[in-house]
User: Which sequence fits this backbone?
């Protein structure tokens, strides 16, 4: 299993970013996928998940601001992040599995920094 995040960086509060995760080494199209993050000094936080059917779930902290999606033809998972806040600063991880919510993930990407600052 390989998961590789991209699209992170520095953005001002109120801005947007789209994270991508290129997946390989498993059958992406039939796999549930998730995004999690770890902020400085805080624990790991599950953010959002998507089943192969396209059914999505979100943590309350990102509901309405973040959108998870997938392109099975490209083996790629996305996280569109809007209305970003300084408290969204964290390392963001692409996750194989993570659904149902609370389920132990099967694999993680290396993570990518997202920094929200003016």
Assistant:
């Amino acid at each position: 299993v390989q998961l590789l995040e991209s699209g992170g960086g520095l953005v001002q509060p109120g801005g947007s970013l789209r994270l991508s995760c290129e997946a390989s080494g498993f059958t992406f199209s039939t796999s549930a996928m998730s995004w999690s993050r770890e902020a400085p000094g805080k624990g790991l936080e599950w953010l959002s998940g998507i089943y192969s059917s396209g059914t999505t779930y979100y943590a309350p902290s990102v509901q309405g601001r973040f959108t998870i999606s997938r392109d099975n033809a490209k083996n790629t998972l996305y996280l569109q992040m809007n209305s970003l806040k300084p408290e969204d600063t964290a390392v963001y991880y692409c996750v194989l599995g993570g659904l149902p919510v609370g389920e132990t993930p099967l694999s993680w990407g290396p993570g990518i920094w997202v920094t929200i600052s003016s």
About this structure: The chain has a mean pLDDT of 97. The radius of gyration is 13 Å.
